[in-house]
Design brief:
It is a single chain. By secondary structure, this protein is mainly alpha-helical. Helix content is about 50%, strand content about 10%. The chain is built from 21 helices and eleven strands. The strands form five sheets. It has a three-stranded antiparallel beta sheet. It has a two-stranded parallel ribbon with strand order 1-2. The protein has a two-stranded antiparallel sheet with strand order 5-6. The N and C termini lie far apart (about 90 Å). The chain binds one RNA strand through strand 4, strand 7, helix 4, strand 11 and helix 12.
RNA sequence: GGCGUCGUAGAUCAAUCGGCAGAUCACCGGGCUUUCAAUCCGGAAGUUGCGGGUUCGAACCCCGUCGGCGUCACCA
């Protein structure tokens, strides 16, 4: 053994059976950060020994999400591409032969089992010393009857072959680690450092899983007695409702048909919802790790400088969407206006093209109107729906309070507002504001609200909108007057 | 059920030598404001799961107990 410190090699090795889970992203982040901190390498590998469930599409999606997060594998552009276990079968066969030769294995119904006949002890970087007696260990399958290695054999052979020094993964693998330690020993390979990370849970304590989507869709459909979406075959739908399957397509179709928001589970869900990468990574870093002081808001550079295993907690973390949202809102508040506008524009170009078309040149004004009100990049679409759709109904409470109360005081103001706006020489936020500001004083109203609130009801159907000047500028004069007329007609 | 592991405000976590239990989010009240936000000021929040023990002193060490989670596959 040399005294030279070993070069750190970490890896992220998902099985390509679905989208990248938010918990997987956290694990990848930790592995990436540890490698960066120690000037080492962060490698990727696909664990596709389950041939039935693995797909190339899933591989691409996982890669797409990792790239988006900026967690690029150092072997991403390697000549052979990212290693796949299904393409390294001779490696496992060689290891299997070696294990057979030393008498560690036996056949069982066409599969090959590994004999666990010793006590196993190992040190986990988070959970500390773990030891299990031989009587509590069972012989396990290392090669399936189909000739493929199991996860246990493949993971050990690959990690050894790729020179992985630190295995960072979810704590569900903690009890598998006895198997892996035994395999390393039997193969005469030095064991890596194991670091098991606590799980990420739902607020109710259950594990955050894709099933949550199916669960919510099913519940909502039953509670609201929703019709089956026409795009889904009735028999499949019925099976879904009878909990025969948790098909994501069905859950998504139900949600879309009924305006239901399914919980974010995958990285892609959070991207669609409009969380930015720095926010997501900051929040994920804090889920199970902390820098040891009260600092919460930091970036990747900070994480790379200070991340270590000794500050990873042992207890499972509940995913707190409110806190994530608060982080997100906070970064929007602090963003320079031009950054906010371009970030929002990019998101809208991808997900809300109808807004972009409708709002046109007013997009900058639109964006700024929602800069301090948004928790996600999708929020402005929800909050500012009225910009693209005229109200179809008026909230009765808002109507009473702002229009019909006191013998239709608000309606009278609204009529005056219409006259004023129709006669304006220029349709700009400042001009509009100045005109309305003068109007409420002329009418001897209490304050600006006397004209602004009736106008809000007319434009939005409710009593809430951004500042009135920019709002009208974006809507443009024609649309504003049309909505006032419609409102006057509907509420008189 | 066996084995393993974890329990600190509602939530995420601090308290790293056994020495005053803190931060943020959420929540509540108030100020500002044309609404909603944003922002400012203030507040509440804890038998450190529970019970015992050791100690001058316990969130921390020991024993027990309850609860959560993981695992016990020819899935990973």
């Amino acid at each position: 053994m040399s005294d030279q410190p070993q070069k750190v090699i970490t890896r992220f090795a998902p099985s390509p059976t679905g989208e990248l889970h938010i918990g997987g992203a956290r694990t990848a982040l930790f592995a990436w950060a540890y490698a960066r901190r120690h000037g080492g390498q962060f490698l990727l590998r696909f664990e596709d020994t389950d041939q039935k469930r693995s797909s190339k599409q899933a591989e691409q999606n996982i890669l797409r999400d990792l790239e988006w997060l900026g967690l690029r594998g150092d072997n991403h552009d390697a000549p052979g591409g990212i290693p796949r276990q299904s393409e390294r079968l001779d490696l496992y066969q060689a290891a299997l032969d070696r294990l057979k030769a030393v008498g560690h294995t036996y056949e069982d119904d066409g599969a090959v089992r590994f004999r666990m006949d010793r006590d196993i002890a190992f040190e986990d970087a988070v959970y500390g010393p773990i030891s299990v007696e031989a009587k509590d260990l069972e012989d396990f399958v290392i090669q399936k009857a189909d000739g493929f290695p199991t996860f246990h054999l493949a993971v050990v052979v690959d990690d050894a072959d790729m020179g992985v020094t630190h295995v960072i993964r979810g704590q569900e693998h903690l009890s598998n680690t006895t198997k892996h330690a035994a395999l390393y020993d039997a193969l005469g390979q030095p064991r890596p450092v194991w670091c098991h990370t606590p799980s990420i849970m739902n607020p109710d304590g259950s594990k955050m899983s894709k099933r949550d989507k199916a669960k919510l869709a099913r519940q909502s459909a039953q509670n609201g007695v929703w019709p089956a979406p026409s795009s889904i075959e009735p028999s499949r739908y019925q099976a879904f409702m009878d909990k025969g399957n948790d098909d994501l397509d069905i859950a998504t179709a139900i949600a879309e048909a009924n305006g239901l928001e399914l919980p974010e589970i995958y990285v892609d869900d959070f991207r669609r919802s409009g969380y930015t990468v720095p926010v997501l990574l900051n929040y994920l870093a804090l889920l199970g790790w902390n820098p040891g002081n009260d600092l919460e808001r930091f970036g990747l550079d900070y994480l790379c400088e200070y991340f270590d295993f000794d500050r990873i907690g042992k207890s499972n973390s509940k995913f707190d969407r409110d806190k994530l949202a608060a982080f997100s809102q906070d970064t929007f508040l602090q963003m320079p206006p031009e950054d906010w506008i371009s970030t929002l524009k990019a998101h809208f170009d991808e997900h809300f093209t109808n807004y972009v078309e409708k709002i046109g040149d007013g997009f900058g004004v639109f964006a700024m109107a929602y800069k301090e009100r948004s928790k996600t990049l999708s929020d402005p679409a929800e909050l500012g729906k009225f910009f693209v759709e005229a109200p179809t109904e008026y909230n009765p409470k808002a109507v009473k309070k702002n229009l019909t109360k006191n013998d239709g005081e608000g309606l009278t103001s609204l009529g005056k507002v219409r006259e004023t706006l129709a006669g304006l020489a220029e349709w700009k936020a400042e001009t509009i504001h100045a005109a309305l500001d003068a109007l409420w004083q002329t009418l001897e109203l209490k304050n600006m609200g006397g004209v602004a609130q009736p106008l809000r009801v007319a434009l939005t159907g409710n009593a809430v909108s951004p500042e009135i000047g920019p709002t009208l500028e974006i809507l443009d004069r024609g649309e504003t007057l049309r909505r006032i007329d419609a409102c006057l007609a509907a509420t008189h």
